[in-house]
Write a structure and sequence with these properties.
heterodimer; A: alpha/beta; Fe-only Hydrogenase (Larger Subunit), Chain L, domain 3; four-stranded mixed beta sheet; B: 195 residues; alpha+beta; two-stranded antiparallel sheet; 25% helix; elongated
Chain lengths: 468, 195
C-alpha cells in the first residue's frame, strides 16, 4: 500500500534548487547571499549548486535577476523551461536562472482525483505575502481570502500549519522544561527550520543532541492529518492527500526525509511554495483580491496568535515563552507581547524571569550568524537554555518560496510590512497563547494524551542524521 | 559649452557584474501596473537597455541621446523627436521600418512586441501565414531608453544597480568637474616638483 501511495503522490527526491545554465551570467550575487557556500563556479560563468552543501533555503532564487529575455535567441524555448521546472503551463511570469523545483502540477492532478481526500495546510508567513502576487501592497494580511481560495481550488479540508504550530509549542515547551529540570542537553535548539536542521546535521553533527526532537509544524500537521484528521472525517488514511503551502523551498526537502511517515504513509505528500499557490490560484481563474473572506476548517485549522508569529524571527521563542511561563508559574504572563525577542537579522540575547528560574535565551536570524553561536556553544562560552535559529534573513516571511520582490530597493520594505502584519494578526486574534487553543486541548484529551506522552513521541517527535 | 547637451546613462564595465537587475528595473518601470513581485508580471520583461557580455567585457548598452540624433533624422514618420533634453520615440506612430536601428551606431534601439493586460497586441489588418493558417501579425515598435521620463525618482536602472555601475552623465557638469579635477592634479604636480 505504501509503495502504491508513493506512486500516487509522485514522491521524488530530485534536487530542489537549480541554476539554469543557459540563463546564469555568473554575476555571483547568489554566491554572496548563500549561507553555506554551496554555489560554485568562476566569475562570469554559469554557476552550479553543490546539492550536498545546499540547505535549499532558496535565497539564491530570491536574489537572482538573470532572466530569460525575448531577445536571447540562443536559449531553449519558454515552454521547455516551464516543463523542466515543473511549472504549470499557464505560468506567465518571467523565468530567472536560479529556481526551485515546482510541484504545483502534482497538486493540480490530486485535486481532480476523486479517490483522494485532499487536505491543505498553509504556513503563517504565507498569509502576509500571497496577496502581493495579486497586486495588493507588500505584506498585506489575507488569511480569509487565502482560505477561500484554497476551498475554491477544491481542497476538501482547509486546515492550517498554525494549528500544528500551537501543538509544537506544547511539545517543545514541555521538552525545554524537561531538559532544564532533569539536566538534559542545553541549550536546546529549535527544530522548525529545515534548512537550519540540515545545516546542523552536516556542519555540526556533534551538536545534534541540542536540537529539539520536535518535528516542525509542517510535519506535525502532516502526521495529524493522516491520523487524527482522517478519524475526524471518517476517511481512510491512505485516501488522504496532504498538501503543504510554505514560504520555504527547504520544506520540500523536509517532507521527503525518509523518516517522515509516522502515520504509516508519507505524512506530507507535496509541498508547494507561496509563489506556486499563487500560480495555482491564477491557473484556476480565481479573482483573489475580490474573494469574500472565509474561515479555516475546524479542528485542525484553529490557531492562536502565538502560532502565527512562528513566521517571523523570534516568534517561536516568544510563543514558547508565553506558554512556558504559564505552565511553570501557573500565573498569567505579565506582558503577552515580548519586544525583547523581536527584531531583524542577527543575534539577540535575553534573560527572562520565570518563577525562580532565570531563563537565558537567544534568537538567531540568518544562517551566517548561526556559525558564531555554534562556535561559542562548542567552546562552552554560551550558557543559554534555549536558542531559536531561523535560516532566512528575518525568519520565514523572508523565505525562499515567498513572492520574489524584483527590485533590491523594495526588499527591506517587504520584510518590514510582512513582519508588522504578522504581529498585527497576533494582536487581533482572540487567543494568543498556544495552550489556550481549544482544539489543541481537545486533541490532547481525545487523541494524544499528554505532551511528550507515548503517542506524541511516536507521531510528533523525530531524530536526526549526521551528514559529515 | 554654450548649449545644454542631452544627458545620458552609461555603465562602468569595471564595476558591472552582469546581473541584469538594470534590465529588470527598466522593464518593470516601463510596464503598466508597476509590478513589485515576479508573480505580478504576466508579459515578458522588455528592457530598454541591453546587457552585453563577451569574453572580455560585461556592461549594458543604451541610448546616448545624441545631439544630432541620427535615428530621428532618418525616421520617415517623424516618430522620434527631442523633448526637454531627451530623444523620445512615439511608439504609437512607429511603423517598424527599422531605419533607426540601422542609423544608431550603438544598437540602442530594438523592436519589441506590445503587450496590454498580459495580451500581445496585434496589428490592424495585417495577417501572417503560419502552419495554423492565417493569424494576426503582432505589433512591433521601436523601443529605447527614455531616461525614465515622467518618473520623478529618475532612471530606474541607475537606482537598481547593486554595484553602482550605472550613472547619469550631465555633460555640462561632467565637463566642469573634469576641468576642476585637471586643475587640482596639475596643482599637485607643480607642488611636488617646486614645493
Amino acid at each position: 500500500m505504501r509503495k502504491d501511495k508513493a506512486r500516487v503522490t509522485g514522491l521524488d527526491a530530485s534536487p530542489i534548487i537549480h541554476i539554469d545554465q543557459e540563463l546564469c551570467t555568473g554575476c555571483q550575487r547568489c554566491v554572496a547571499i548563500c549561507p553555506v557556500d554551496a554555489i560554485e563556479g568562476s566569475k562570469g560563468q554559469p554557476q552550479t549548486v553543490s546539492q550536498e552543501r545546499c540547505v535549499a533555503c532558496g535565497q539564491c532564487v530570491q536574489i537572482c535577476s538573470a532572466y530569460a529575455s525575448i531577445f536571447d535567441d540562443d536559449i531553449a524555448p519558454r515552454e521547455q523551461k516551464i516543463a523542466e521546472r515543473g511549472l504549470l503551463p499557464s505560468v506567465k511570469e518571467p523565468l530567472f536562472a536560479a529556481y526551485n523545483r515546482g510541484d504545483a502540477l502534482k497538486v493540480k492532478a490530486a485535486l481532480t482525483n476523486r479517490s483522494l481526500f485532499t487536505m491543505v495546510q498553509c504556513a503563517p508567513a504565507v498569509r502576509v505575502a500571497i496577496a502581493e502576487e495579486f497586486g495588493l501592497p507588500l505584506g498585506s494580511l489575507t488569511p480569509g481570502q487565502m482560505a477561500a481560495a484554497l476551498r475554491k481550488i477544491g481542497f476538501a479540508r482547509v486546515y492550517d500549519t498554525n494549528f500544528a504550530a500551537d501543538v509544537t509549542i506544547m511539545e517543545e515547551g514541555s521538552e525545554l522544561i524537561q531538559r532544564v529540570t532533569t539536566g538534559g542537553t542545553l541549550p536546546m535548539f529549535t527544530s522548525c527550520c529545515p534548512a537550519w536542521v540540515k545545516y546542523v546535521e552536516q556542519t555540526y553533527p556533534e551538536l545534534i543532541s541540542h536540537l529539539s526532537s520536535c518535528k516542525s509544524p509542517q510535519q506535525m500537521a502532516g502526521v495529524l492529518f493522516k491520523t487524527y484528521g482522517a478519524k475526524v472525517d471518517g476517511v481512510e488514511p491512505e485516501q488522504v492527500f496532504s498538501v503543504s503551502v510554505m514560504p520555504c523551498t527547504c520544506k520540500k526537502f523536509e517532507c521527503e526525509r525518509p523518516e517522515m511517515e509516522a502515520s504509516g504513509y508519507r505524512d506530507v505528500d507535496v509541498v508547494i511554495t507561496t509563489r506556486e499557490l499563487a500560480q495555482l490560484i491564477k491557473d484556476a481563474g480565481i479573482d483573489f483580491v475580490h474573494l469574500t473572506e472565509e474561515e479555516f476548517d475546524k479542528p485542525l485549522g484553529t490557531y492562536t496568535g502565538a502560532a502565527t508569529i512562528f513566521g517571523v524571527t523570534g516568534g517561536v521563542m516568544e510563543a514558547a515563552l508565553r506558554t512556558g511561563y504559564e505552565l511553570i508559574t501557573k500565573e498569567a504572563v505579565p506582558e503577552i507581547s515580548m519586544n525583547f525577542v523581536r527584531g531583524g537579522e542577527g543575534i539577540r540575547k535575553a534573560s527572562v524571569k520565570v518563577g525562580d528560574l532565570t531563563l537565558k535565551v537567544a534568537v538567531v536570524s540568518g544562517l551566517k550568524n548561526a556559525k558564531v553561536m555554534m562556535e561559542q556553544i562548542k567552546a562552552g562560552k554560551a550558557d543559554f537554555h534555549f536558542v531559536e535559529v531561523m535560516c532566512c534573513p528575518v525568519g520565514c516571511v523572508s523565505g525562499g518560496g515567498q513572492p520574489k520582490v524584483l527590485l533590491p530597493s523594495d526588499k527591506p520594505g517587504s520584510y518590514v510590512s510582512r513582519t508588522a502584519n504578522t504581529y498585527v494578526h497576533d494582536e487581533n486574534l482572540l487567543l494568543r497563547k498556544s495552550h489556550d487553543n481549544p482544539d489543541v486541548q481537545k486533541l490532547y484529551e481525545t487523541f494524544l494524551g499528554e505532551p511528550l506522552g507515548h503517542e506524541s513521541h511516536h507521531l510528533l517527535h523525530t531524530h536526526y542524521t549526521a551528514r559529515k | 559649452m554654450s548649449t545644454n547637451l542631452n544627458a545620458f546613462i552609461i555603465a562602468d564595465p569595471n564595476k558591472c557584474i552582469g546581473c541584469r537587475v538594470c534590465e529588470v528595473a527598466c522593464s518593470v518601470t516601463h510596464t503598466e501596473g508597476a509590478a513589485v513581485t515576479a508573480g505580478m508580471i504576466d508579459a515578458p520583461l522588455i528592457a530598454k537597455l541591453y546587457l552585453v557580455k563577451t569574453a572580455t567585457v560585461t556592461m549594458p548598452i543604451q541610448c546616448r541621446h545624441c545631439e544630432d540624433a541620427p535615428c530621428a533624422q532618418v525616421c520617415p514618420v517623424a516618430a522620434i523627436t527631442q523633448t526637454k533634453g531627451n530623444i523620445i520615440i512615439d511608439e504609437s506612430n512607429c511603423i517598424g521600418c527599422k531605419t533607426c536601428l540601422m542609423a544608431c551606431p550603438f544598437g540602442a534601439i530594438d523592436f519589441v512586441p506590445v503587450y496590454k493586460n498580459g495580451q500581445i497586441v496585434s496589428q490592424n489588418g495585417l495577417q501572417v501565414e503560419t502552419e495554423d493558417g492565417l493569424t494576426e501579425k503582432e505589433m512591433v515598435v521601436a523601443s529605447k531608453c527614455d531616461l525614465c521620463a515622467g518618473h520623478a525618482a529618475g532612471p530606474a536602472c541607475v537606482r537598481a544597480c547593486p554595484e553602482k555601475a550605472l550613472e547619469i552623465v550631465v555633460p555640462k557638469q561632467e565637463k566642469k568637474k573634469r576641468n576642476v579635477d585637471a586643475a587640482i592634479s596639475l596643482q599637485d604636480a607643480v607642488k611636488k616638483f617646486i614645493g
